[in-house]
Amino acid sequence: MDASKPSYVSATPEEPGQAPSGVASLCGGPLPLESIALPDGLELRCDDRGLTLVGDGLELRGDFTRMLPRLRQPNLSRELLVRAARVKGVAHPMAVDATAGLGEDSLLLAAAGFTVVLCERDPVIAALLRDALSRAAEQPLLAEAVSRMQLVEGDGAAVLGGLEQAPDVVYLDPMFPERRKRGATNKKLQLFQRLESPCEDEAALMNAALDAHPRKVVVKRPLKGPYLAGIKPSSSLAGKVVRYDIVVPAPSR
Ligand SMILES: C[S@@+](CC[C@H](N)C(=O)[O-])C[C@H]1O[C@@H](n2cnc3c(N)ncnc32)[C@H](O)[C@@H]1O
């Protein structure tokens, strides 16, 4: 965790699984390794382009620079996620992205002014995300937004349970089981999905989100997908392929 940023979490929760040895130090420790073999024929490589997941002749690297066109106004304000997460009358809103992945959705929220706590439980995805964040911090057009992003490696539900203050927004985008069955059209996504496991703890995530007492929970779903954990949203914003369900919890008594 970056000690120079305000912290919203008291402690990093324990990882449910152990990180493959050396992942945490790749590109980051005092003696960076050049390559780590992962199960399933995958490999993590570190070179001057950053940390890269390699497999099946494909490469996957976190890269926030490709998001730049979406971060420019008026594009940013038109993003469905930004519209769904908007909270009125809060000068410095705070969001928890409990299923951060490679952090692209979190970056949209940070660029829109949110401070974002990003939770990622897969150690390899978290290492790719950490590397992307540190490279983006050196990019003048990304540095300000990235300074509002704090990565916590661990389970999102556990992080939500340990927050020191209620977030304004909790964002959930767990992998939808159907997405894996159909197979991703995007080849880089196929590589990502070899690491990612389908969400089997929908209810735990949604309950932890609601128990954190946010103003709203925003959930990304496939356009025609069922509600997460069967909870009917207060409203939805639908795009061409995805939908953002907005759950506004009842005020606590
Ligand atoms: C579909 S991806 C999220 C993509 C992300 N919205 C983005 O913009 O890149 C889902 C991610 O959530 C992670 N994940 C799923 N359940 C989680 C949990 N309970 N806690 C933390 N991370 C979780 C997975 O490992 C995966 O990286």
Kindly summarize this structure in a few lines:
The protein is 29% helix and 21% strand. It is α/β, with parallel strands linked by helices.
List the helices and strands and how they pair.
Blueprint (H helix, E strand, L loop, with lengths): L34 E3 L5 E5 L2 E6 L2 E3 L7 H4 L3 H4 L1 H6 L8 E4 L6 H8 L3 E6 L2 H14 L3 H7 L2 E5 L2 H6 L7 E4 L4 H6 L4 H9 L6 H10 L4 E7 L12 E4 L3 E6 L6
Parallel strand pairs: 5-6, 5-8, 6-7, 8-9
Antiparallel strand pairs: 1-2, 2-3, 3-4, 9-11, 10-11
Bound molecules: S-adenosylmethionine.
CATH structural architecture:
3-Layer(aba) Sandwich
Helix content: 25-40%
- Give the CA-based shape: globular
- Could you state the order of secondary-structure elements as H and E? EEEEHHHEHEHHEHEHHHEEE
Give the number of helices.
10
CATH topology: Rossmann fold
What value does the average pLDDT take?
87
Low-confidence stretches: 12-21
- Can you list the strand order of the major beta sheet? 7-6-5-8-9-11-10
What is the subunit arrangement here? Answer: single chain
Please indicate the count of domains: 1
Name the descriptors.
253 residues, Rossmann fold, alpha/beta, 10 helices, 7-stranded mixed beta sheet, single chain, binds S-adenosylmethionine
How does this structure look, described?
This protein has 253 residues and is of the alpha/beta class. It has one domain (64-247): Rossmann fold (3-Layer(aba) Sandwich). It is built from ten helices and eleven strands. The protein has helices at residues 68-71, 75-78, 80-85, 104-111, 123-136, 140-146, 156-161, 177-182, 187-195, 202-211; strands at 35-37, 43-47, 50-55, 58-60, 94-97, 115-120, 149-153, 169-172, 216-222, 235-238, 242-247. The strands form two sheets. The protein has a seven-stranded mixed beta sheet with strand order 7-6-5-8-9-11-10, sandwiched between helices. Strands 1-2-3-4 form a four-stranded antiparallel beta sheet. The longest helix has 14 residues, at 123-136. The protein is globular and about 50 Å long. The two termini are 35 Å apart. Mean pLDDT is 87; it is low at 12-21. The chain binds S-adenosylmethionine (SAM). S-adenosylmethionine (SAM) is lined by residues 98-99, 101-105, 119-122, 125, 155-157, 173-175, 196, 199, 201, 205.
